[in-house]
From TrEMBL:
<dbReference type="GO" id="GO:0003677">
    <property type="term" value="F:DNA binding"/>
</dbReference>
<keyword id="KW-0731">Sigma factor</keyword>
<dbReference type="InterPro" id="IPR013324">
    <property type="entry name" value="RNA_pol_sigma_r3/r4-like"/>
</dbReference>
<dbReference type="InterPro" id="IPR014284">
    <property type="entry name" value="RNA_pol_sigma-70_dom"/>
</dbReference>
<dbReference type="Pfam" id="PF04542">
    <property type="entry name" value="Sigma70_r2"/>
</dbReference>
<comment type="similarity">
    <text>Belongs to the sigma-70 factor family. ECF subfamily.</text>
</comment>
<dbReference type="GO" id="GO:0006352">
    <property type="term" value="P:DNA-templated transcription initiation"/>
</dbReference>
<dbReference type="InterPro" id="IPR039425">
    <property type="entry name" value="RNA_pol_sigma-70-like"/>
</dbReference>
<protein>
    <submittedName>
        <fullName>RNA polymerase sigma factor</fullName>
    </submittedName>
</protein>
<dbReference type="InterPro" id="IPR036388">
    <property type="entry name" value="WH-like_DNA-bd_sf"/>
</dbReference>
<dbReference type="InterPro" id="IPR013325">
    <property type="entry name" value="RNA_pol_sigma_r2"/>
</dbReference>
<keyword id="KW-0804">Transcription</keyword>
<dbReference type="InterPro" id="IPR007627">
    <property type="entry name" value="RNA_pol_sigma70_r2"/>
</dbReference>
<feature type="domain" description="RNA polymerase sigma factor 70 region 4 type 2">
    <location>
        <begin position="93"/>
        <end position="144"/>
    </location>
</feature>
<dbReference type="InterPro" id="IPR013249">
    <property type="entry name" value="RNA_pol_sigma70_r4_t2"/>
</dbReference>
<dbReference type="Pfam" id="PF08281">
    <property type="entry name" value="Sigma70_r4_2"/>
</dbReference>
<feature type="domain" description="RNA polymerase sigma-70 region 2">
    <location>
        <begin position="2"/>
        <end position="64"/>
    </location>
</feature>
Amino acid sequence: MKICYRYTNAMEECEEIVNEGFVKLFKNIHQFDETRQEDTLLSLKGWFKRILINTCIDHYRKSNSSVNGHVLTHESETIADQGENGLDMLSYKEIIEAIRLLSPAYRAVFNLFVIEGLSHEEISQTLGISVGASKSNLSKARDNLRKLLQNKNLIKAYVSPP
């Protein structure tokens, strides 16, 4: 659930993706190679994680990959990747909640690049967008996350006792 939760902003969607992932796992269990690693359980977990990530990507492709009615293919390819770091004093839960508030296109690119470690070229091929669009979407996702997290941090500082 945690993997799928990062890619969607609705619990029902998340559950749907997890269920679809389990169906894929059971349909293709005959393809699983038990002898690949010594620890079969660890190997199975890694294989299932990859199935879930691919299912999330498939779900993203099926859904509308646009923001405000504009398809995010090469909208702002000239925007450079800022490479900014996040805030140090945030919990995992706060960061995941902020990621879930991103638009689907930004969230998918952010998850694939930052969390899954794919390159912009791999993201481009996976999502069917240009490399520039991947870089642009990552930059915008980071900007939006920074704003979301800073606003949340300011509200916390204002509300919490001294």
